[in-house]
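Data availability (excerpt). The following record was deposited with the supplementary files.
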Amino acid sequence: MYTQIENNIFKIDVELKGNPLKVLNSYYIKGTDGGRNLLIDTGFRNDVCRTSLLGGLTELGASMEKTDIFLTHLHADHSGLATDIAAPGTRIYMSAVDINYLRGLMAMDGSDSEERVQLQNGFSSRELKEVGEMFGHEFRCEFCDGFLPVHEGDVFRYGGYELRAVLTPGHTPGHMCLYEEKSGILFLGDHVLFDITPNITFWPGFTDPLGQYVINLLKVRDYPVRLPLPAHRGIIGDMPTRIDEIIEHHGARLDELLKALREHPGGATTYELAENLSWNIRSEHPGWGSYPIAQRWFAVGETAAHLEYLLLRDQVRAERHRDVVCYYPRWRPECMKHQ
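Predicted structure:
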């Protein structure tokens, strides 16, 4: 199913079956005067996403032989189908930063390095086995050799539009948006979502993901955007207002985390602290233990990013105790919001 958004711009609803995100908004820019088309994001590498995406492209009369692909970031719900649907000659673009991270993730397949990190965060081996079964590597694109690296300021011309790449690290280390200044259109990926808050987690080698995210929210906040196009849920909203709400949300989360730390003067793991925070998660029964394992995974990752933010600003300290890392408050003042 597709919806026309603007002249030569269409939104294809790609079903994310069993995923709380529900749908990916994949955007298709139809070429003019025999020129090439551009597809922005693809969905997971599974049959449900493939059927949704290819069905929409077929309805639009699109040919992958004449279509290039731009991936806003490396997450499988955005990049998973890229290599499967590409035709000979299809150019697949992704930020140079995320290409390197995707290569690193592929190289880690089958290793225990990520498991060790999550055990340090406080997950049990049983929970990690559940996570592995849920987030199987088969949903990710098969390879990224041949992906074309994109850098800040690179320009793409499709469908009569001139799209400038905007590097917006935070959600991933190399997340990118596409900005069409003349028309005031911003393809947001997962940088700004209007109905839910993008997940910010920790990444090896990417320092201060939450701080970087706030900086890059402010980077685009005052762009003259008439039509902000997010990758999930609703596409109607005022971008500056939503950015202010997201920053305020993270400020409140930091204060809540500091409060939880003060209530655990003997130290607590990332997992234990996440358990003591408030989450808007649907579950049959109240309480952390009833949350789906996928939601606990995201919650612990987000808590880790907030702890790193506080650690870098000398508001908490960390100590290793055997196989886990515990966190302690340094002092009691309110969090330094938005710094």
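Summary of structural features: The radius of gyration is 20 Å.
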